[in-house]
Amino acid sequence: NRVVGQNPGERNYHVFYALMAAADAQMKEQFGLTKPTDFWYLNQSGCVNDPSLDDKGDFVKIRNAFKVMKFSDEQIADVFQLLAAILHIGNLEFITAGGAQVSNSDALVVVANLLGVDDYQLQDALTQKTRVLRGEVIATPLDVDQAADSRDSMAMNLYGQCFKWIIKKINNCIRGDETFCSIGVLDIFGFENFEINRFEQFNINFANEKLQEYFNKHIFSLEQHEYNTEGLSWVDIDWQDNGECLDLIEKKLGIISLVNEESRFPKGTDETMLTKLHTTHAKNSFYIKPKVQNIMFGIHHYAGEVFYTTTGFLEKNRDTFRDDILCVLKESRSDFIYDLFENIAESKQGRGGKTMRNKPTVSSQFKESLHALMTTLNSCNPYFVRCIKPNSEKAASRFKEEVVINQLRYSGMLETVKIRKAGFPVRRYFDDFLQRYKVLVFKDSQQPSPAERCQNLLMKLDADKKLWQIGKSKVFMKEIFEMEMEKERETKLSIAATLLKAHIRGYIARKAFKQTIKKIIKVSSYCKMFLCRRRYIKFRNAVIVFQKYERARVARKRLAELKEEKRKEEERLREEQRKREELLAKLKEEKRREEERLRQEEEKRKLEEEQRRAEEEMIKEEQKRKKRGKRENKRSSKISCLLPFILILTITLLSDAERNLLKQRDLERKKAEEKLRELEELTKKLEEEARVQKEAEENEKQKKEVQAKKELERARQIEYHRQLEKEEQERMAEEERLQREIEELKRQEEQNRKNKEDEDRRLYDEEHGDQLKRVEELVLKEFEDSLLQFEEEIGEGEDDVFSRKSEEGQNYEGFLLMKSAGVINTWKKRWFVLKDETLMYFRSKQEALKSGWLYKKGGGHGTLSRRNWKKRFFVLKDTSLKYYDHDGDNAKLLGVVDVKSIKDIVDSSYGRENSLEIVTHERAYQFVADSADDCSEWYSILTRVRSANPYEMREIRDEEANPKNAIGSLDVVLIDSVVPVNIDSKKNAFSIITAERVISLAAESPELMNNWLTALTIYHRGIRVYNKDEISRVAGDPRGIRAL
After folding, report:
1. What is the pLDDT of residue 1026?
2. Exposed, middle or buried, 630 (CB in 10 Å: 0-12/13-18/19+)?
3. Strand, helix or coil at 807?
4. Concatenated DSSP letters of 534-549
5. Three-state SS string across 937-983, please?
6. pLDDT on residue 505
């Protein structure tokens, strides 16, 4: 309990001061750290600084120790954040306002942020105690003292769980294999006796009594028992036994048993507990009953008499760390806080909330842990270190004989010195003794009995038998005798070791000499090899030079030959080209001449043809003329008869000569044409070869041009892409600038809107302040009356209520601020729905088919077993299942699962209860719900959505405002009245008054408040108007408002 309270002149644990002294500016801002004097857990004793300690240096040592023990940076930061949260918890203050309420809400918000919990839930857990009465959760306000105890209990448990977690990490780091041996150090509080001794001092002194019993058992009881068992000559030494004192405390009907029994009675008090103690143990010699009736009782401890004040005994024994606080810490968004309390089970609460008889008390837990410690100690070989205080003032260089002698006397140190002086503290088994000290005799004795051999050895060293004795299985020796034997043994071993070292050194020297000879031979061989190789390399380099010049000569000769061959080949090709050109020119010339000759012959033939036709014309004319002369000249018949015959013969002879000439000319023409065709074919062949060669050259040139174009195009593409990237960067920069300007404009518009709303509220309050104040006084009076009546009737069970179902399915909904318990900072934003004669309120707007927290199995390399299970907030909207890191407004979307693409939904278990597996085409998702009902609801809704058609989906969406999802509901028929109230901290407030309670609500604007008042009042009078448009129309009617 040093975390929450210290004695005068004492400091809290050093780590808090080290954190405050060495934290940098960023850490102080992050954790809200200032000065030690600003924190109640550090300044209540009046001692903040200790000149003998260096807090900054201790902080560096702590961080280095964390690193050595393989703590990650994240884990170190989590530990420091938890320590800062504990300091801020101590600054929480409470006032009485309908029960305990937190007066400094700023400190509460800081604590909630550091612990990763909701500040409203944390305040409820600290200021209220919940229980289940007939199936309904009842919250009972705590008083200021009880709330302070809850605060201190949470701080102590946070520190204790963190301490256990660090010890577990250290043990896992230094643990060896399964057969490892270890040395443990046990250091607890010393015996405490202050002016006022409370429940904590009682437990500490009880632990000291148990350890004193353990000390007596090993120093006196077991020691003397072993002497008697081994048959040594021994006189028993008396010692103070504290067994009866322990029986008074822990046996049946002892002090702890009576305190636990009284703690389990709901009406048990510290006074009734003290009366039972006096009645039961008044005759016990170790129990002290004060002569004057007061609130104390005393015990004769081994260290003296101690009187204990019973104030707060039962409350501290009942353990104020309630399940409400445990549930809040288990819902923390911080994995570290969750890990600390994951394995702490909540109390199993039965009907009627009767958990006191089953819940273990603090004293019973302390007793069980102390017994477990004693079981561990009994399995070890203990060594005791007694710490003696020189004075009671904790001052340096001050020695008080009275204080020291009393500590020595009460702790049994005088008897310890006596038994150590008279006894034989050193003992060894015979075989062990012979094995260790046989070096002290040169020749081993031949006695078969180990006891005789040990006795002979001891007789040679001490014949008087004053410093040793022989038992049945062991040798018992004085400590001084053992020291003498060890010195003699060391001398003998030193002489033997010197001789062995001499032989070993000689062996090592000889071995080193042989190794040196081998190395010299090897080095010489390497030297010879190096010289030979150097000569070889020199000769090889010379040969290489000769080869180089010879190869150059041969290459030059071969180059000249190749050049000559190339020159001859080029000349041959040029000559062939020249001949082909000459032949082509000659063929062309012959062709030209032949064509010229043929042309001349053709012209000659045409000319002759024309002459022949002219002659034939002349002959015909002549024949015509002769025929005419034949008629004229009839006188000369003989000449007329012979002349035709002569002409015909002449024409016949002339025609045969011409025909032979034409045939000869045709034959010569055909031969010329044949030769001309041969020349044309040869010309075409030569032209084809020239064309092929020219095409090859053109193709090579085109390939080079295409390659150059490709290189140019590639360079253009690279430059083009660079230009595009530059333009893209400029465009993105411009878009970011525009986005920032748009966001800035939005923020300015939002700020202007808020300022306008605040101004509207202020004007509204000024206009209606007096009227709302009178209504508020009336509401508060009715609230007090209804609260008294509710407390009287809360145990009588729930009244039978009835509700009517509306024929219309319309509903009125919106956000409202709802005040829970108390009047300070207890407003919470809730989503209200008025539907089917029921007013329901939800944690958030019901835009989804279902939402809630689930544990999702994912990646991670954490060292803890739960690292792969992350708590995520899931929202099922339409056919999309989305999960976020938390349920706030700025929650980060971590993933989306399309329900329609799910292959299978399996209700299975993965080492944890209430688990689901969703199998898709890409992967499988594993989820774990907090309860079986929650798991069943998720399984049902996912299965329905997966197999639903469009019509069924519309029906599922109509079920969004389901009372099962609401955190509270109220039948409208139970409402007595709905009135506006005037509350300074909240504008637009109104109250719903029923026979059992008053619900205080606040709207965002006067219009919304009037709409809600109209809707609730109209329905209460029997008119079912749920539609928002209708309600707004009624609210806008002045007559409706005056009627309200």
Report:
1. 41
2. middle
3. coil
4. HHHHHHHHHHHHHHHH
5. HHHHHHHHHHHCCHHHHHHHHHCCCCHHHCCEEEEHHHEEEEEEEEE
6. 94
Check: CB of residue 337 under 8 Å from CB of residue 329. Answer: yes
Q: Mean pLDDT across the chain, nearest whole number?
A: 78
Rounded CA separation 735/739 (Å) = 6
Residue ranges of domains in the chain, CATH in brackets: 14-182+320-350 (1.20.120.720), 199-315+371-403 (1.20.58.530), 798-812+818-825+967-1043 (2.30.29), 848-960 (2.30.29.30)
Question: At residue 926, what are phi and psi to the nearest 5 degrees?
Answer: -115, 130
Give the whole-angstrom CA distance, residue 38 versus residue 30.
Answer: 17
Residues 6+ apart with CB under 8 A from 117: 328, 329, 331, 332, 333, 337
Query: Distance (Å, rounded) from C-alpha 21 to C-alpha 27?
Result: 11
Task: Give CA–CA dist 169/423, Å, rounded.
Answer: 43
Amino acid sitting at position 588? K
Give dist(CA 387, CA 381) in Å, integer: 20
Place of tokens 């000349």: 571
List pLDDT tens digits, range 302-334. Answer: 878 889 998 888 878 876 677 888 888 989 999
In tens, the pLDDT along 148-182 reads: 888 888 998 999 999 999 999 998 888 777 777 77
Q: How does strand 904-908 pair with strand 915-919?
A: antiparallel
The three-point CA angle 102-104-107 to 5° equals 105
Distance (Å, whole) CA 461 – CA 109: 78
Compute the distance between CA of residue 450 and CA of residue 444 in angstroms, rounded to an integer.
12
Is the pLDDT reported for residue 62 higher than 90?
A: yes
Contact 431, 457 (CB under 8 A): no
- Indicate if the alpha-carbon torsion angle 477, 480, 483, 489 is positive or negative: negative
pLDDT, greater one: 842 or 806: 842
| Contact of 46 with 8, CB cutoff 8 Å | yes
- 975-983 sheet: strands from edge to edge: 968-971, 838-842, 827-835, 811-819, 998-1002, 986-994, 975-983
Q: How confident is the model at residue 740 (pLDDT cuts 50, 70, 90)?
A: confident
The span from the CA of 507 to the CA of 513, in Å, is 10
Taking every pair of C-alpha atoms in the chain, what is the biggest distance, in angstroms? 218
Task: For residue range 587-638, list pLDDT tens digits in order.
Answer: 888 888 888 888 888 888 888 888 888 888 888 888 777 777 777 666 555 5
The CA-atom distances, in angstroms, between 660 and each of 656, 663, 669, 672 are 6, 5, 14, 19
Question: pTM here?
Answer: 0.46
Length of the chain in terms of residues written = 1044
Distance of CA 554 to CAs 475, 505, 548, Å?
A: 103, 71, 10
Which residues on adjacent β-strands are paired with residue 480?
none
Helix (H, G, I), strand (E, B) or coil at 928: strand
Rounded Cα distance, 965 and 851, in Å: 9
Distance CA 298, CA 277 (A): 10
User: What confidence tier does 1000 reach under pLDDT thresholds 50, 70, 90?
Assistant: confident
CB atoms under 10 Å from CB of 430, counted, come to 20
Structure tokens at 961: 């405002």
